[in-house]
Fold this protein.
Amino acid sequence: MTLRVGITVFPGSNCDRDAMHAVALTGAEPVELWHADADLKGVDAVIVPGGFSYGDYLRPGAIARFANVMGEVERFAREGGPVLGVCNGFQVLAEAHLLPGALLQNTSLRFVSRRVPCRVERTDTPWTAACEAGETLTLPVAHNEGNYFADERTLARLEDEGRVVLRYLENPNGSANDIAGVCSEGRNVVGIMPHPERVSDPDLGSEAGLKIISSVLVGAGV
Amino acid sequence: MDELTIRDTYTALGLSDFEYDRILELMGRAPNYLELSLFSVMWSEHCGYKNSRPLLGRFPNDGERVLQGPGENAGVVEVGDGWAVAFKMESHNHPSAVEPYEGAATGAGGIIRDILAMGARPVALLDSLRFGPTEGDSPEASRNRYLLREVVRGIGGYGNAVGVPTVGGEVVFDASYSGNPLVNAMCVGLIRVEDVLTARATGEGNLVVLIGSKTGRDGIHGATFASDELSEESESKRSNVQVGDPFTEKMVIECCLKLLEEGLLVSLQDLGAAGITSSASEMAAKGGVGIEIETDKVPLRESGMEPWEVMISESQERMLAIIEPDKRDEVLVLTERYGLVGAVVGRVADHGELRVLHDGETVGSVPAEYLADAPTYEREVVRPEYLDELPEVDLNKLPEPESFNEALLKLLASPNIRSKHSVYEQYDSEVQTNTVVRPGADAAVMRIKGTRHGFAVATDGRGRHCYLDPRGGGTATVLEAYRNLSCIGAEPVAVTDCLNFGNPEKPDGYFQLAECIEGISLACEALGTPVVSGNVSLYNETERGAIHPTPIVGMVGVLDDVSKHATLGFKREGDMVIVVGD
Amino acid sequence: MLKVRVLVRPKPGILDPQGEAVKGALPALGFEGVGTVHVGRLIELEVESERDVDAMCRRLLANPTTEEYEWEVVG
Amino acid sequence: MLKVRVLVRPKPGILDPQGEAVKGALPALGFEGVGTVHVGRLIELEVESERDVDAMCRRLLANPTTEEYEWEVVG
Ligand SMILES: Nc1ncnc2c1ncn2[C@@H]1O[C@H](COP(=O)(O)OP(=O)(O)O)[C@@H](O)[C@H]1O
């Protein structure tokens, strides 16, 4: 059976095609999920990709979360379906309250595009199952609002419950506790700022990110 | 209008007495204000290349791989496996001097649409930048820092959001650019050989469709403005500057590529300087047909716009397409799907004129070929005196530094040599996942998904060299780009350029322009790298004088196997270091 | 139509790097003696009734995790 | 210290893509009947005197090319 991974496309998404390419490299089938259609086309997992949905106007992710497709993504997530938000996708999931916290502007007040070493903190999520706990992945970040914020209580809770999934070893944006990615209480929804799809193709020199993209196949026993 | 007011009017529009007389002669009657506006924007230096066209003919344009040379929105060269790249460079110097963020952003947006107009998907951006010195506490240095910061933010703000990676460029500091920064953006697009489009209107009765944003009073007379010297007065013309919307541009890209994929377009053209006027008249002139535009059908952002304002508005993120009448509904369904304005605003006619209608009445009509054929000025090339007054420098007489280590560190820390990572880290250089070699190397290397092929691209410019020796500097600029590509393992194939110069009406400026073009041409001929597209930015002068003559060359090379490329940096201890060449 | 003005600002205690940057830039321009600075968002909209305005703010215009808002009818 | 509130908004006629995007989003949330929407900036600062505020607005807080501003002392 081929696993089918849906990739949402909002107006202004710009990593949707990259995510599809990476998903195809894992052997899964990428399925485009158009923002205006409240239809997940029966996919087994969903990736909300990076980009500038609705131009990032107002706040990144603020408008995209109300797109028709997001109602279905929320339902899918509540039912335990694996959902990965990458960069703008993380922002969308946070705005939709599928993940705690918010992504504020980088403390440098600048867009930051570089490779950052990150430590995989947890492998008990559908999007890190193929990684080794504690391993370092060098992943590209490219964002203006990646500075993870949550109030003290929420942060303490995230740490206690082991919900910090990915942590920067060199903090590029001022994130609280060097957080690069978190998961939901049910652990099925994961949001990360780095772009695994950009380091998933041997032709581009690194496959560090393929571990993340392909993890969902492990969980599904494919 | 009496004679004096007429003269005031055309002078205010930037037309000379000679040009006005020429218009009278061509038209055989006095033009009305709208018609005069059409001439004024189309005959500006920016659109009409009045001072440079005769000189540009010198560039070699042909080559085995060339599918499209100059004259279209971008040049196109074949890469292999049925793939081609379209590329062009363009300046946005004046807008960036006045409003650096939006000036740079709309510069990136404009060049992306040029590539799109060829039918290509934009896959890489480069930015070649020049600023005055940024070190120190002087107001000038602080202004230059502000320009640097905002220009870089503007390029990133647009390129990052629109999803085209910025993969290379340059930043150079020199006093001659103080108050007149150079912002040149280059875009490369990928296209199948058989899909290359031309901006040519054909088929009487075909429809003209405007796609993208609503039209506002943005940049009215911006093209004329771009051809003025910067002065106190231009500060007051600030309302000319347009605001970019990369979000809409992204939708314009996806929508137009979809329309092409579905075979719904006859022709496509971007709306740049001079807006609908330039796009429509160029498409009509090239196709040997006429175009009628109904200004009341153009969706407006502001109420009460006059027909002439609609015709020359430079509102960003708009494209003009020619379609067959029976494709109308399909086209409009798609523009709607992408959340864009899609409006039938005119039709192709057989009368050869650019005719403007409002509420059914003709409010102006000019033969398109007149608009597309601005008068050109050829001047005498006179060697400037400054070249003879340059101090002779004997390198052997320079004192040796006391400490070579210190001298080396000082050199490495100097603004023009030190790492530019603080600039390119603000650019997304990897979106689209084709970037094989990212910024920080001699050239960027891009792969073509699904093939082993790739291409490499670099920009170079040598303003000071061109000032001291215009011809030699022009040649050296091409050679530098050629070396950058060679070093990375690519076979250089073609060139785009942006000619940034001072006032060509002054003998020094004209000489520099002519000689740099000669130098570039000599190098391109010797190396077999034809010039397939380019852009000219003249009148780069402030009260303090002209910038250094700064032709920027963007060169593209091909790699048959993209995995076989070299990167910078010593790899292993014990490896040998070899110097090649003189 | 009613004209409504919405002010959105970072919640107290939330890091406001933009505000800090503005505060940091002012002395260099010769403006001394500036205390705290905060940067937020201004949204001005025309609505038919004020009934929905609060819901718009809560659901879209402000992010309750990091921002607070106030609004008033101004015309 | 005086508390000053500065409102910065796009000049009339200047493209306001943020405002357009918000306007476009509201119906999907079930809020109909919204007219124009404009998004700008709110800056709140403490100053010792109001003397310099206008100059601050002109030189730093607003971009005179594309934006207009107003300010008032609020406390
Ligand atoms: N404005 C810029 N935008 C993007 N990349 C840049 C820019 N300026 C410099 N770079 C990148 O930094 C690297 C070094 O640039 P430069 O010092 O001009 O190289 P070189 O002197 O080797 O030609 C190159 O990879 C170049 O593409």
